[in-house]
Amino acid sequence: MKSRCSGSLIAICVLASFTAWGQRIQPAQDIPSQNPRAQNAPAQNAPVQSGSSVNGGDFSTITEPTSEGIVPKDTIIVKGAWSSASDSTTSLPEAASLTNNVFTDEYFGITYPLPSGWFQKFTPPPPSDSGRYVLAQLGRSGSFQLGQSDSSGSIMFAAQDMFFTPLPAANARQFVSYSRNHLPDYYQVELKPTQTTVGGQPFMFFAYWSPDAELHWYVLATQIRCHTVEIVLMNRDPKAMEELVRDMSNKMKLPAEASLTGGTGGGSVPVCIKDYAAGENVLERVEPVLTQQRHNAIPVRIIIDKQGQVRHMHFLSAYPEQQKVISDALKQWKFRPYERNGQRLEVETGIMFGAAPPAVLATDRTTD
Amino acid sequence: MTRRNIRILTLTIATLFLAGTAFAQINDPGVRSTTGVNAGQPLASVSANPADLAFFNAGLGQFNEQQTVTGDNPGLGPRFNLDGCGGCHSQPAPGGTSPSANIFPNVGPNPQSQAIANGLVSSSTNTIPSFVTATGPVREARFPFFFNANGTANVNNPNGGVEDLFTVSGRADAGTCSLTQPGFAAAQAANNLIFRIPTPVFGSGLMSNIDDSTLLKNQAAQAGNAFGVAGAFNRNGNDGTISRFGWKAQNKSLLLFAGEAYNVEMGITNEIFMQDRPLPGEDGAGGTGQTGLPANCLNLAKIGYPEDITHSNGTDASSSASDITLFKVFMEDLAPPTPSTTVPGGSTSISRGRTLFSSVGCAVCHTPSLTTQPSHLTAGLGNATANLFSDLEVHHMGTGLADNVSQGGAGGDQFRTAPLWGLGQRIFFLHDGRTNNLVTAINAHGSNGSEANASLNAAAALSLTDQQNLINFLRSL
Fold first, then answer.
1. Which of B317, B333, B349 finishes a domain?
2. CA A131 → CA A160, B287, B390, distances in Å?
3. Most buried in the list A79, A329, B18, B36, measured by CB within 10 Å?
């Protein structure tokens, strides 16, 4: 408040504004008991005497609720944009599991029996609206916390949906060379992207380290079902990682399609084609009308059946209302059935609804 | 027991002992007190211009002013959390965050805990909620969910709005307005209560002056990182531009935040928040059937709405400006905190810690610096490097940090990467101020569903000496 202080009021105003914060602060020794309960518990929410008082707002007076009345701890109930699917039978990339210490991702057709001692302490975050997945993050010690130097390292399984990638990379090979070309300068390359084999399938292999942190990273990547699947190893000791890579090489099971520039499905899984849901392939189309949230990217991965109908929808990231409106619309879309060698095949593709994020500049394009 | 077994046992005990003491080897050096107060000054370009400096000082005065229901600084209530911006935003200088009487620079006890002692609220109608203590932190409370009629929390009916701690009822200047405080004890018993502590506003003018395209380019530059991090922006509902203030980046601008804070924290209506704010539910939301604040609690200042206005009889910028404009000017003109190059731990440790911070992936979210767009306000805000240590994105932080409050586009587990400038002189950390230990704050990054898990793993793989270097670096900020 300023200019209400006019004329004869000025003196009072000046006085009033001098009541600065410092003046009402009591000396430290005057602070009452610092135990909140002791200090306030008896008076806590004592009923107000005045009979006319208004009990406004959203209230409860139950201070000892039964278990149903208690909000569960450590549970994310109010979700923002999140992943969901139209059915619960079709496998999803993010639905990796760790049963009997075997890492399994049914969608990608990967299994890997973990060497003893490896486990997942924390489950990964949901997929991002740029098509980035963390499938599993494994460690060997129980800590994952500062205060104990944890030299046991980690394994992360990750994936990038190439329908939605913001990077100028069309396949696993380009994805890795992009990473190498954009490696921050505090890392040093130990092994430039090189072709190798894991579980009998081709992978790109790339290694770097941080001389300051004395940590090493190994990145192994292949392409499956139009996703770059990455295995990122981190450790202080490169020997331990070499051992892990050997173990993976022997024990990891991967689908036959896994390759550096192919990896486009087929066989027992749908063929995947980027941007299939465009142009003349779309015979009938109903636009979803978003009313609430409109400014986020909503990547939707769909499987089109042999009749040209949407059989499966996977929302990587969508608000509940968007999920509903878009699935209502997509159910009415009709596509040209995909044919190869005179045979109709199921096809998997991606459609970006909402406000698509800008792609990384094409001038950054990396080639093989 | 054979001798060999005894040897093994002794070894095991020795190892356990070592593991147990390992924790003691890294520690948070605490609030940096040996370098004076390193925040709270205006930008150099503001100091250099007498008119701008006068405007800043008027803003500072207004920021620290205490409001009353009627009188010369009118409009307080009917519901509020405190009577001045400067009470909550005070450590280590006006504009900062939650204070303490015992920790440098000893600003004072949590002012909310003194509300009865100081006569701000009446003890016959108000109690100090149990979670408000003299040692702090200052707290804003929210109920994630509405309650059912039978008093149980209804997880299908999200609430999340601010529940003001206090009412003016019983104050001499509040007339017959008689309101009760929200049922905090019941909400706490139902685990339906979350907290927010004040975010400091030093350097906020730089943050508001970063162009959206700069933020988008920075996001793109992190794509494909090896830590599994992929954040999103919280966007303004109407125009889709990137919002950036508050723990969930829920607010677009400083003026908007000032208007909202004046209204929500202090109950003062202004040109962008014209009505006295009822509690969530008191407004009828959540199916409570209520219809707003009772008539005898409205227009308590008896000057009509809004209580804070732009003054047509002003004689210069500051006497014409509304309070919310003064708040905005003060906040945007505040220079970012000055980091120390030597304290704590010495310059070698700090500069090493800075590199490690990037190497282990903290910088994927905590972007060390971003450049601002040209500024019409003051030279210091334009084409400047803002060393904010944030990408201003919201990230999934997992079940451990989730508060089940959705704001704008951010869900219950998403938070804005907290800017880290000024960290060296902060007392409380994380959105709810759950800890004053930096090590604990970093460890809280790890939980189910957190984007920061891999980065935390890498930090935990550092040698203890290097973990300490990382902490020293953070406390140098």
1. B333
2. 6, 38, 22
3. A79
Residue numbers of A between 175 and 214 with CB closer than 8 Å to B: 175, 178-179, 182, 184, 186-187, 210, 212-214
Beta carbons of B392 and B410 less than 8 angstroms apart: no
Phi, psi of B471, rounded to the nearest 5 degrees: -65, -45
Name residue, tokens 């920061």. B452
Residue-number span of the structural domain to which A178 is assigned:
82-264
Q: Is the ipTM of this complex over 0.85?
A: yes
The pLDDT tens digits along chain A (368 residues) read 544 444 443 343 333 333 333 333 333 333 333 333 333 333 333 333 333 455 678 888 899 998 888 999 999 999 999 999 999 999 999 999 999 999 999 999 999 999 999 999 999 999 999 999 999 999 997 778 999 888 889 999 999 999 999 999 999 999 999 999 999 999 999 999 999 999 999 999 999 999 999 999 999 999 999 999 999 999 999 999 999 999 999 999 999 999 999 999 999 999 999 999 999 999 999 999 998 888 999 999 999 999 999 999 999 999 999 999 999 999 999 999 999 999 999 999 999 999 877 666 544 444 44
Residues B190 and B165 grouped into a single domain: yes
Closest CA to B361 of B258, B468, B462, B243: B462
Across the A:B interface, residue pairs with CB atoms under 8 Å apart total: 423
Asked if A260 and A273 sit in the same domain, the reply is: no
Q: Which residue of A has its CA nearest to B405?
A: A78
Same domain, B67 and B156: yes
Asked whether the beta carbons of residue B118 and residue A24 sit closer than 8 angstroms, the reply is yes
Single-letter amino acid, residue B50: P
Same domain, B383 and B409: yes
Q: Say if residues B75 and B267 touch (Cβ distance below 8 Å).
A: yes
Pick among B62, B64, B133 to test the A interface (most A CBs inside 10 A): B133
CB contact under 8 A, A295 and B400: no
Which range marks the domain in which residue B388 is found? 17-35+205-229+339-476
Distance from CA of B189 to the nearest CA of A (A): 5
Q: Cα distance from B114 to chain A (closest Cα, Å)?
A: 8
B-proximal residues of A, 259-288, CB under 8 Å: none
Q: Within an 8 Å CB–CB cutoff, is residue A2 touching chain B?
A: yes
Residues B285 and B393 in one domain: no
Q: How far is CA B107 from CA A17, B57, B98, in A?
A: 19, 20, 9
Looking up tokens 């000057």, which residue turns up? Answer: B303
Q: Do the chains contact at A56 and B90, CB–CB below 8 Å? A: no
Closest approach of A85 to chain B, Cα-based (Å): 19
In chain A, how many domains are there?
A: 2
Q: Mind listing the pLDDT tens digit for each residue in B345-381?
A: 999 999 999 999 999 999 999 999 999 999 999 999 9
From the CA of B188, how many Å to the nearest CA of chain A?
8
User: Is B281 within 8 Å of A56 when comparing Cβ atoms?
Assistant: yes
Among A25, A147, A153, the residue with its CB nearest the CB of B23 is A147
pLDDT at A360: 67
Asked whether A245 and A281 are in contact (CB, 8 A), the reply is: no
Domain containing residue A335: CATH number: 3.30.2420
Residue B384 C-alpha, separation from nearest chain A C-alpha, in angstroms: 23
Please tell me which of the candidates B109, B124, B191 has its beta carbon nearest to residue A25: B109
Q: Are B410 and B250 in contact (CB under 8 A)?
A: yes
Q: Do B69 and B210 fall into the same domain?
A: no
Residues B184 and B55 in one domain: yes
Rg (CA), chain B: 24
Query: pLDDT tens digit string along B228-287?
Result: 999 999 999 989 999 999 999 999 999 999 999 999 999 999 999 999 999 999 988 888
CB B72 within 8 A of CB A16: yes
In a domain, B404, yes or no: yes
Q: Tell if the CB–CB gap between B65 and A129 is shorter than 8 Å.
A: no
- Are A311 and A256 in the same domain? no
For CA atoms B61, B66, B67, B73, give the dihedral sign.
Answer: negative
Contact B411 A296 (CB under 8 A): no
Tell me, yes or no, whether B101 lies in a domain.
yes
Chain B closest-CA separation from residue A106 CA (Å): 20
Q: Cβ contact (<8 Å) for B313 and A25?
A: no
Over residues B25-45, the pLDDT tens digits come to 899 999 999 999 999 999 999
Q: Check whether residue A235 and residue A281 sit in a common domain.
A: no
